[in-house]
Amino acid sequence: DQQVKQNSPSLSVQEGRISILNCDYTNSMFDYFLWYKKYPAEGPTFLISISSIKDKNEDGRFTVFLNKSAKHLSLHIVPSQPGDSAVYFCAASGMNRDDKIIFGKGTRLHILP
Amino acid sequence: ETGVTQSPTHLIKTRGQQVTLRCSSQSGHNTVSWYQQALGQGPQFIFQYYREEENGRGNFPPRFSGLQFPNYSSELNVNALELDDSALYLCASSGSREYNEQFFGPGTRLTVL
Q: Which residue ranges of chain A lie beneath pLDDT 50?
């Protein structure tokens, strides 16, 4: 039973355009949501996070939106750059230290020249 | 500031053998989590160590065990290896305040034949 779902295995976006990566979750107890980026042969790199008390968090070109009623979050990258080509993982957890982080399966983003 | 390091990079074992994977946490981090990432999947939480104590465990059998040392480095031990244990094993460390924002090492690729 997948608690964090990324339904698009891959996404191709033209350089300079907006990339939108989507994520759905089923567990209403999740309080904290994170996005990680992973290049081949490297570990995932933390990108941006959002707590359940917010609906938007922005960091440079990256913005995460949270819709709690729909149990949906999205990551927007504007403008998309070639270096953004990677696998993006959505993850969720509770706010307690011993709450485990649950990851989705990832979406591979290809930025086209 | 030194990042998270893992050793070895790659490992090949046969069924029934035992393996030990090692992780050095990022400087100043006291929490280490271990994940198993099978091909095409997101990282799956194995367990977490906080100040040398196990602090949460995922759905993995007891033959997966771990340790954390006073310098906060950690080991993952897997006994009686099975073919399905073939995966990328990721270690992540985090500090006291942002324990959800974990910093990952490059991983150890384990192949069980």
A: none
